[in-house]
Structure formats: structure tokens, C-alpha cells
Sequence to fold (500 residues):
Amino acid sequence: MTNLLSVADLGADGIEDMLRLTDTFVEVSRRQIPRVPALRGKTVAWLFFEDSTRTRLSFEAAARRLSADTMNFSVSSSSVNKGESVRDTVQTIEAMGVDCVVVRHRSAGVPWQIATWADAHVVNAGDGWHEHPTQALLDCYTLREALGSVEGRRIAIVGDVKHSRVARSDVLAFTLLGAEVTLVAPPTLLPPSLEGWPVTVSNDLDAVLPEVDVVYLLRMQRERMHEALVPSLREYTAQYGLTRRRVAALDDAAIVMHPGPMNRGVEIDAEVADLPRSVVVDQVRNGVAVRMAVLFKLLGSGTALTEEVADG
Amino acid sequence: MADRERRMAPPFGGVFVPRAEVMDRDDVHRALRRIAHEIVERNQGVDRLAVIGLQTGGAPLARDLASAIGEVDDSSLDVGTLDVALYRDDIGLRPVVAEEVTDIPVDLTDRVVVLVDDVLFTGRTIRAALDALTDFGRPRSVQLAVMIDRGHRELPIRPDYVGKNLPTRRDEVVDVTIDGVHLGEMRK
Fold:
């Protein structure tokens, strides 16, 4: 594995491998000194062309716990504002000697383009509305931790699917692992075409809730109001928000997930977010371990020892 | 040699072909009992002792060694496992494989730690294990017990307790299980 751009590249076996590897790093994260020297001397650069605090911090924690060095390239304080092209930026950063670049960009496909230019490993930390593979991996890990398996689970992904890279990567990952996914959203917040998506679609959250093991809520971005995709936030909450009343319709064992940051009172009621069945905090915690697994898998593998005896 | 090490040994994907049985099941158990006595003698009891098996080959040996020590001196004993994969000096040189469980149930500060592994070869695994241990506390001392010492050391490391010294060629493979020790090689 040289890059992590899409969960589709991993396939079901690849995802299982990453989840197994993640177990190790969950154990490391629980230690008194949660740090191992595995990636000493490696450098990871953050290339975030779009603001992100949570994902960047999570990657940063992952790299540090593996003893890798990190370089931060944030757009607001950089030459991108002076008109430098993405290609020149990547070339500049590579010339400084990095082993891995973690890319976020507001346009879909940029990490793929960077992967063709760069010798360093590329990790997609979110490109436009397209993909967010590490989020999908941590969601699979958290779901498996809470329910024992992903296979056969019925998952409702609720909210702004159209503008959500999390939804796209999660649909891919969940269905690859054998889950059944239902998208629940107003038609205006669904992609124009769902051809080829292995999902069912519903506009009625109340009908779906009793049937599912997982409710995955997407963030309702306030910007969408201006585009008139939903009449009002209150209207959205009334129809698609996970309110206290709606939670009662869920199976006792069902869990609630959210990629964060949450809009309490919009897609999720304030009290609902703090229920024991909400695994939002576990998602964040597992995120660090999953990203450790991704960085270790990319930077820690090689084949040069094939001719030497590797025992002992 | 446990499954994982077998997968890592060249030629990759080969199978272990045993050529000679070096120890049988009884020999292994006699060696473990002798080592148990030596440990109790050297440490004047088992007070503050922790037995840590190195994944993957040392883990079952550590369990059996701990119960053998329990028969010699019936105080309770802490047993754990340690995976040193993240501390190795050949990271980035060979494929990443899924790790095994690290489970160290106690703070190792001021404890006497007995590391247990199946085969002592280059010494690099033990070097990594010594590094890893420092993340779990500051042991009073660390001792090393191995079932087979096959020579070819690349680092200044020596065992304290040895089941059997076994002269080998570098390209040979030693396979240790609870049921016996075999010398052979990997073949495609």
C-alpha cells in the first residue's frame, strides 16, 4: 500500500487488515506513555488547503505517538495565498524531505493528482464532497467495537448526504463489509443520481428508526440554509433531527454516531448526544488509533529484508 | 518459531520443513522446570517477579514457565505478553503484519522482569523488548530466559536461562513449540 486515497482501494480485506492493525494502536493509546518509536526519523506533512481542526489534531496526535516528525502547511499563512500552484507547493514540501503528505482540499480529486506528482505517500484527509477514508475506517472500527461486527448491520445515514464526503466513504466501507445502508434525507440533500450506490433511500426517518442498528447523523451545515435546500433549521429538525422522542423508537441496542462537530439542537438533541448509546466520543478516540494504523501501514512497511533471515 | 515469524522468514510464503527433532515434548517440559528452579534460586524466591512472554513464540512458553515456577514456589506470579513489533530496528525494511497482544498487567517499576522467548538468535528482538519495557516502568532488573540459544548474535546480549544451546547455520530455522523443538529450513 503506497497511498490511502479511497476506501474502495482497500477492499473488504484491506479494511479488515486496517481494523486489525488498529487494535494494536488502541492498546498503545491506553498505555501510561502512549508513544512508540515505530516511525522515528519519518516526516509527515499536513497539506490542508481547507480549514480543519479536528482531523488535523487527530492526525497530529497519531504521528506523534508513533514518534514521527510533523510539518504543518496551513493555507492561511502560506504562499498559496500568494498564488502558488498546488503542484509547486507539493514540490516545495517534498524537496524538504517528507515521507508522507496528508492532504485536505475543497476540490474532489486533488489527493489523486498529488499522488501522481509526489514520491511521498499520500493520505486523503478529505477532498471536497468526495471521500474521507480515515473517517470511514474509524467509523467501521467504532461500529465493530460497539456492536461486534459490521456485517449484516442495518445502518441509517441521515442528513446532508449530497455535500458529505463522510457519507460517501462510509457507504463504500459499510457496504464492502456487508452492512445494509439506508440514506435518509430530503430529496434536496441527496445527490442528483444514486445510480450504482448499493443503498436504499427513504424520506421518512420515523419509519426507518425501528429497523436499524445504527443511526449515523451527518452535520447539517448552516450554509445550506442560504442555498434554500431546506426551508429552515427548525423544519429540518422536526423532520430529520434525532430528538428524544425519536430515540425511544430505536432498538435498545442501537447506537448513534456522528462525525462531528455536532450541531446540538439541529440534527441531534442535546440530551441525545450524551446518551450511553451515543458513541461520538469513541469515534474521536478511535480516530487517533486508526490514523496511527494508516501511517504505520504506509511508512512502516518494506520488503528489503526478504533475503535475510528475519527471525531472532 | 511461531506463525508470524514463519511468515516473515525467507523465502516468503515458504513452509517449514523439519529435518531433525532436537527436543521432544518431555525435554521441553524438563527444561522449563529446570529454568523455573534456576529462576527461584537466582532471585531467592519469586517476590516481585513478573514473567513476560515475547509475542508470538514466547507467549505460550511464558505461561508454562510461570506455572512451573508456581509449582516450585507457590506464591502468585504476574504473567504478561509483549509485542515488540513497534520497537524493532527493521521497521520500513519489511512488510507490516498485524500485531499481537501486548498485555502487561502491572506497573513494572521495581519489579524483576523475566523476559521469555522461544529462540535467541541475533538479539535484535531482545534489544527491542528492552526498549519497550522502559515504557511500562523501570524494572529493578531484567533477566532473559530462552528455550533455544542458536548463536549468531549481532548485539551484545546474552541469556540468563537457556533450555538448550543449539549450534546452527544462519540459513537454518528453529521451530519451538510446547510439544518439541525442530531444526529445519524454509522451502518454497
In short: Helices of chain B lie at 3-8, 25-42, 58-72, 124-133.
